[in-house]
């Protein structure tokens, strides 16, 4: 099977992507900055019969990323697929933000993607094969109030991916993006539950109305599950998608419909 490295794989879409790759017979590399989460996902992938390598590394640190990639190549022999999934966000109006608020989403989302892509690209060029799939966000395609810097970082990933696709297509390397809308990740569920628990009864009524209004924005009438996004990532990493590069595909229940 192919060797797939997934960053930010400790939970959510990253976790779903690892397990979907494992089900498809790939060798998987589980990366996150939280060791306990890495091991938990690695154990689940092994239970599916996959060969697994678990590595704790910070994608914002180029030295750690380079070390991770060298370890994978040393132990497994190659990297066929890179999934740039690690992310960080924060909900705050731009007028209320300061530079310190901007650092994490830009460093994790944008620089993390640059660090990981740079670390694998020469290896892929040498082998004349590779798939790079980066997770962006519908916020990066159409904008979202309160997520301006996160949206900027995600839009940067899209522009980078399209440019890189043009640079490395000659080497049989496909570079694409997947753009989720709101997704029922563990993090989203935790944050929603915390908001609910500290809310007054009046606030809970507002939360219910907000959630109902949000669902009306999705033609399919529901939010995505991590596996919905993972399925698209795994498709783009497959030979079924060998003639697709420089593209972004939204997996969002129809929330946005733009070319």
TrEMBL record:
Pfam family, one: adh_short_C2
Protein name, as recorded: SDR family oxidoreductase
Organism from which the protein derives: marine sediment metagenome
PANTHER family assigned: 3-OXOACYL-(ACYL-CARRIER-PROTEIN) REDUCTASE (PTHR42879), 3-OXOACYL-[ACYL-CARRIER-PROTEIN] REDUCTASE FABG (PTHR42879:SF2)
Protein family membership: Belongs to the short-chain dehydrogenases/reductases (SDR) family.
UniProt record, GO biological process: monocarboxylic acid metabolic process
């Amino acid at each position: 099977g192919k060797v797939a490295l997934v960053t930010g794989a400790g939970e959510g879409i990253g976790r779903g992507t690892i397990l979907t790759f494992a089900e498809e017979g790939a060798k998987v590399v589980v990366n996150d900055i939280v060791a306990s989460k890495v091991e938990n996902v690695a154990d689940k992938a092994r239970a599916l019969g996959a060969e697994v390598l678990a590595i704790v590394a910070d994608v914002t640190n180029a030295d750690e990323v380079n070390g991770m990639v060298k370890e994978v190549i040393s132990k497994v022999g190659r990297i066929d697929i890179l999934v740039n999934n690690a992310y960080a966000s924060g909900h705050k109006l731009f007028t209320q933000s300061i530079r310190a608020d901007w650092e994490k989403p830009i460093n994790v989302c944008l620089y993390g993607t640059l660090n990981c892509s740079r670390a694998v690209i020469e290896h892929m060029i040498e082998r004349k094969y590779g798939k790079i799939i980066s997770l962006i966000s519908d916020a990066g395609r159409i904008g979202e109030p309160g997520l301006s810097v996160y949206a900027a970082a995600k839009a940067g990933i899209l522009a980078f991916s399209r440019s890189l696709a043009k640079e490395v297509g000659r080497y049989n390397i496909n570079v694409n993006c997947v753009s989720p809308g709101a997704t029922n990740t563990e993090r989203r569920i935790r944050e929603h539950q915390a908001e609910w628990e500290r809310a007054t009864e009046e606030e809970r009524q507002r939360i219910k109305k907000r959630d109902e209004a949000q669902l009306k924005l999705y033609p399919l009438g529901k939010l995505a599950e991590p596996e919905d996004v993972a399925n698209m990532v795994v498709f783009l990493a497959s030979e079924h998608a060998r003639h697709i590069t420089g593209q972004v595909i939204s997996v969002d229940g129809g929330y946005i419909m733009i070319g």
